[in-house]
Amino acid sequence: MPTNAPSAALADATASDGALRRFLHGLPGIDPVGLEARAASLGTRSIKTSAKAYAIDLAISMIDLTTLEGADTPGKVRALAAKAVNPDPTDRSTPHTAAVCVYPDMVATAKEVLKGSDVKVASVATAFPAGRAALAVKLADVRDAIAAGADEIDMVIDRGAFLAGHYLKVYEEIAAVRAECGDTARLKVIFETGELSTYDNIRRASWLGMMAGADFIKTSTGKVAVNATPANTLVLLEAVRDFRAQTGTQVGVKPAGGIRNAKEAIKFLVLVNETAGADWLDNHWFRFGASSLLNDLLMQRQKLATGRYSGPDYVTVD
What we know:
The chain contains twelve helices and eight strands. With 318 residues, it is an alpha/beta fold. Helix 4 links the parallel strand 1 (63-66) and strand 2. Helix 2 crosses helix 10 (230-247). The longest helix is centred in the last third of the chain and has 18 residues, at 230-247.
């Protein structure tokens, strides 16, 4: 698995804190009203029945089925991993999810259940969700998760450092985690967009993460009041589109938190198609971080297949 190394074309921008600041603050500014209007307009696109069936299956295949609670038990993680492999036991044509996302101490448990399947194990790390720890502690967190079998690492940036303008510190931490992942694990970089205050900051964080070697950029932890929205996800999609145009490197996007039903998920898929393009309509490049979304997708899938709405009693409770 190749490491997503920073582009040589951007090397000068990361030579110093001042150079990085000039580059990031030189990115085009965002008109918040225009951005939100575009995100809202794309969400009104009508989807025909055949396209809806395709979109539901695609969305299922893009889910990082997630449990990140202090009360997580091995039994809960095993059940979640089994559901990821076989989301609907009554219909074996249902796609499996992309991954199961857990804390590092639950990676081995998930890996045991998922052995022999194509479902990945993702693990949050780097003092998730606050990101308030020394770099050595963060790297140890990553090493533990990878040693336990994690295929993907979801790290959080130091938002305090970013908001204080210490961009090089954030860049160097991401690069260090990317180096720790090596060829073993893909790296998703979480910005916690709800804490970054402005869309301009979200764009700057997106480029900073990609320049430092992120394989994915991710909106949120799911642990704050404002998580993934169409507007903040649109900023990330524009960033990965523009980054590939400039560097030739493709980076994935993961909205996480607050996407709870099929209708919302399909709106996000429209955003992907209309902004970044069809190259991102694949779970290698786009994911949903979710826990409850899968159940609604399964219910809508059953309704399309049978003409009847089964209701929540016909899907397992996570």
